[in-house]
Specification:
With 407 residues, the chain is α/β, with parallel strands linked by helices. The protein has 14 helices and ten strands. A hairpin with a 4-residue loop joins strand 9 and strand 10.
Amino acid sequence: MSKRYDAMIAVGNKQYEELFQESLQLKSVQEKIEFCEHAMIKAFILSQTQALYCTEMTYASKIAKKLKKMYGDKYNAETLVQSLPRCVSQQLTINLNELAKFFSENMLEPNVEHAEFKRLLAKFGHRSSYELDFGAKRWAEDPAYLLNQVKSFMHNKMYERNLADIQHKRDKAEKLITDVYCEMKRDYGEKRAQKFKETMLAYRTAAGMREYPKFDIVRFISLGRKVALSVGEEYVKQGLINNKYDLFFLRKVEILTKQNLKEKVKNNKEEYSREMKRSSVPRIVLNTGETIYSVSKIDPNSKNLQGSALSPGVYEGVIKIVFDPHKALLKEGEIMVTESTNPAWTPLFATAGALIMEYGGPMSHGGIVAREYGIPAVVGISALKSRLKDGDRVRVDGSTGVVTILE
């Protein structure tokens, strides 16, 4: 499996290098804009190819059923999904904590110009908190989010707890595999025990590999964004737009025709601002125009909010609503409440005591990472902004999907 992981990475690196070389040959605006589209199509195709390298991640249910059948509740299969080997998203969390440790032990103020921080950006700078949004700034452009995470992990030496917790969960998963192997060897013979051990190891590796295709998708998007920004810079020089980032408020046809771009940017920005003020997004829009925001009737006076179980466990604490991770000042142990998450949000899971999401499912990023970090999580609580607020004390039951407002 390790060699297969390396092969998957090599496929992505090869295609990225080819695309990068292609980007150096672009001359006209039309070539550059078409390249941006081409880069995103290539990213999607690559992700489907890479997904074939980690099909063993579907073994989760098979492993859980087999453990249950052989040994009842003695072994918790959820342990196997924690601290996954070579998981690129968790590696970001590890690197941020190691960076916090470095600055703390050397009594240095975190600085994006420091060589250690630049090393982090060299690997993860193409990512962003809203990384599938072509218009969103990459961390290489604005590293404030990463810098704030490092500062947060330095507080009360939180990095010590985080790094120890990650290692503890890795040890726990490896111990489970060893214990199951030894017990199966005794009960069913070495051949069967070895085969099941390899299945568990393959699952852990594949589950960690699962995050990598997204890593490469965002690399391709970031490359396309750089090319688009070069067009933006050119248009600023020509006086067509005021700021290179204004290009992301124009449609393709508007960029190519070059007519009244400043006015169009202004109008498009106003429309964008109006849309961003929406407090929620309908789950279903009927052909009559009727919108449905929740599959169940909401009782505004109820203290029990019913969602879907996402990651087992029960946790009581104070909630912190986070809709922009750049502005998130999540304190250790607070319950993170948000609409949804993506891999760029992973470092926040090291701080959170539990997770409540409006959208998602068992295989969504939030669900997978919550289980990986071993924190309770619930999804499907509609209208979060109107039903919960910062400072509310709640109980999150990740086994039943119920969030209870305590005070």
